[in-house]
Amino acid sequence: MRNSGLYYDSAFLTKEDSLRLQSWLSSLHPIWEQRYSKNRPPPPGESQRSLLRPVYWLGNWQFACLDYYRPPKGVLHRCVKAEPYPPVLERLVNKMEKITRQVFRSKDIPVGWKLNTCLINFYGSHEKDGKWVDVARVGEHKDFEPGPVASLSLGERAIFQFVKSQGRGRPSQVVFQQWLDDGSLQIFGGERYKNHLFHRVQRVEKKKGCYFPLHINTFKTRRINFTFRFVPEKHILPFRDFPAVLKEDLSPYLKELAKTSSFFASELKNN
Ligand SMILES: O=C(O)CCC(=O)C(=O)O
Fold it and tell me: Cα dist. 190→67, 145, 146 in Å?
């Protein structure tokens, strides 16, 4: 029988692929994004803030200040064409897509679905005013890209929870939780896990002493998570096709990325 929306394999990644991934990750320069921008200022009652963790996107980059991809209304000018997957990820993604088609019901897999988008989250401690602060968590949210999402984890274990919102001021109710191990693959989709419930990372352990040497200043990374998602190609546009006001907001990020990425250097040049 096809599953009802949740799949977990604690040992998806081989040692060799984990080392290949870590070697590739050490070439990246993740960035810190701000939640808002000049042309998309904070709404009343909110203030400008940095995301809790550095990130990197592949396939397309959904900048926080563009408010991510939120169909049906928020689909235009949300996804900036980004770097393709490196060969090791391309191969792993093919495997994840195959597993998804085998174990998920076809009604939960949209037409044209493929895992063409990846958000890489870096979890750890951040040095602020001379003190190390643990910021290894993600608040409850939904991923709005259509169809199943696949999540690959490296490093320390994280407790991942699906929760039901209980309304304003009341703590959410945990419906199901799963420890995400080093090298594990989780796939979730369907009405319950993807559309109805929220999910969050409550905390990341420190038991194994994992530490990833990466190009991120004032940050010690002990867990890395890749979430692979689907965005229809028609909603992914190159930077040059964005409206001038959004280009103004995104330019500082593109310039920072272009310092170490030939892809983004060329996107800026062709602008
Ligand atoms: O780090 C994780 O396991 C989950 C990340 C997540 O919730 C997300 O990228 O939307």
Answer: 23, 12, 10
CB atoms within 10 A of CB 187: 25
Is 222 within 8 Å of 210 (Cβ atoms)?
yes
Instruction: Enter the tokens of residue 219.
Output: 């940050």
d(CA 41, CA 24): 35
> Which residues line the pocket of ligand 1, CB cutoff 6 A?
119, 121, 138, 143, 151, 153, 158, 160, 180, 199, 201, 225, 227
Q: Which helix (H) or strand (E) holds 252?
A: helix 244-258
**Ligand 1 closest atom vs CA 223:** 1
Residuewise pLDDT in 10s, the chain (271 residues): 567 799 999 999 999 999 999 999 999 999 999 999 999 999 999 999 999 999 999 999 999 999 999 999 999 999 999 999 999 999 999 999 999 999 999 999 999 999 999 999 999 999 999 999 999 999 999 999 999 999 999 999 999 999 999 988 899 999 999 999 999 999 999 999 999 999 999 999 999 999 999 999 999 999 999 999 999 999 999 999 999 999 999 999 999 999 999 999 999 999 8
Assess whether the previous peptide bond of 86 is cis (omega < 30° from 0).
Answer: no
| Rounded CA Rg of the chain | 18
Set out the domains of the chain in order of their start, with CATH numbers: 6-269 (2.60.120.590)
DSSP 5-44: SEEEETT-S-HHHHHHHHHHHTT---BPPBS--SSSPPPT
Output the residue whose Cα is nearest ligand 1's atom 7.
200
